[in-house]
Amino acid sequence: MHTVVERELELKLVLSPERSIPVPARLTYRTDDPYAVHIAFHIGSEYPVHWTFARELLVEGVFRPSGHGDVRVWPTKIEGCGVILIALTSPDGDALLEAPAAQVSAWLERTLRVVPPGSEAEQLGIDEALAELLVPAPGGLVGGGRADELYLRDPWPSDESQEGEA
After folding, report:
1. Residues 6 or more apart whose Cβ sits within 8 Å of residue 137
2. How far is residue 18's CA from residue 157's CA, in Å, rounded to a whole number?
3. pTM value > 0.85
């Protein structure tokens, strides 16, 4: 069973230093995708705009400038209030969003309690899946022969007829 941590909040799309517009958004964290955070922006279109990036980038961006390329995050103060700035770049354009630091930090704290940093791989079950794949069959036999024979057989038999075949 997977856990989902969500938070609805209002961001500000910064149009200029003097002008911004409110943008409703939803932050989502899912334990079945433990390395990522998802943000859906509701911009008045039929479908929200979705962005996904590393949770670690957002966690670090709460304290200091983080990221490069398509997603950059950094803390600042605007009119005495702590905010998180999120710069997004895509082929369709650029956006600078302002998020309330206290709300983002509280939501991130909830995600970190659900999946502590460094334990993300445990959520994916990779070790268990690999162990299951690597368990030898009883008696070392696979398909009626020894397991080592799997590596000795040609996986792509020749399409050419063997001598004496019609």
Report:
1. 147
2. 70
3. no
